[in-house]
């Protein structure tokens, strides 16, 4: 007994050492949250109440009834109030002929009405298709067609996008309007069956991924249908609120399975037209419950999100996660660095939600004495760049970053709870236990740098993929059931070819199947996952692979750079692609004066020299951008993800670059100098070798 005072501290020290080395407590939080979420989903499927409207109903009839769920624009709605309103919207939708399993397109900016429409559709067993409210013209009509919706519900602010002139331009002709709905709220269109355009199709009773027959389209399905568009003005909202809040029967929501479709959420469209990804009930329930457990979301927590609800990060991991936790979410109409912190403070938010370059924009705003005057304990989201990570935490006094990597169509995700510098900048982290249990479901495979499109390297003998070593970049893959990939990966609605293109077989053994993320990753021996680049964004120069993400991170650490977008450009008489960086410089009195005078951004010569020195010092010679495009704005999606295709289409064409108001420079010796038409002609004539 006398030795006990010495044994206990030694044992505690040993346990602490093992915990630190093996990350046991870290893994326990991750794995227990995952197991709990899986178990909960299976139980709800067994009880036939997997529809998340049922969770809202249970809160409305519990001690959470009077607790706020939604905050927006200075108002709040409790779980009980949200439940009653949702039922009214459900009854109205039934009066409009909406049926169980029907897809209805929803084109709304963030608002409480978005939530009422969404959960109103779920209450009657219908499936919402979330439309990016930034889309217009061809991309907008494309998303509606690919959803199969006959009914489109539109925010009043979106009325101009559906004018008769616009619709006629894209093959739609106005039809007579029903007498029971005021003309100013309703527009109906008949789709002209132009053989060059896919017909609008109404699919009924679709609960999961379309069958092969449905994806190809049967003869009966190819008949054009009317498209009804309803605009939500105040009059319509008031009318719906005057209706009875009768509870829709369970029969409208039952007979749903984990792999069945809950809603359609479109890809961001960074490289082309958006594709409708099937968000299954399994993913919606699992993701929401996992986040609620892992963060964890306490009932007293308030999550603030300015991210668009048409994206899965804000809808599934924001709205649905707070619903599963019984906590509160404050939704802002849209992101603005001017309103972000005032809204966070006014609501008393404890968690802020970000996507893409959100944190960089907040960091670029002028400093304020109120930067740390808030109740925020954590930031949750995806896409926080390594060069912004620690400066953001330090400036705004945020102790924990909950970073994740996932995609709407992806069967799984990677998670990183970061409280110190150890995993700062990583998209995910696993300890020893999580690696043992979850490692077999993941793979990073080497890529063939010379293939087009990029494809994995395979062993000449076995034909199987070559698995990347630690710290070696490769494409991240998630394991699927080879006999039934649709159990975990429901794919793209009505697009079998796009779905099949994401499945890779014969990876580790003959006959297996994996989901292709399309992203290059590396995994280190400490269990940290690092994002390298999007496949297709990495380019070849001087027989070397250049990671655009790596170059952008280095540029972001320069004192004068506010934001950078890196891409490869074709150069006459040269193989591969040369590096080019579109750069937004931090504003200064001098640069503003020069820009106003010349109407184009002109950096100081010392800035150009400093950038060249910084890049040469921080990057291998082949990765240093040979061209700089000084611009005022970086093109982004609605979720603050950078788009490269516009810059890439301009290449190093001086007329195209300058027509857009930008200025192009090229590396000459130890500095960047202005690139002119004469310089381009010299390169084209073979007089300059880069």
TrEMBL record:
It comes from the Eukaryota. This is Acetyl-CoA synthetase-like protein.
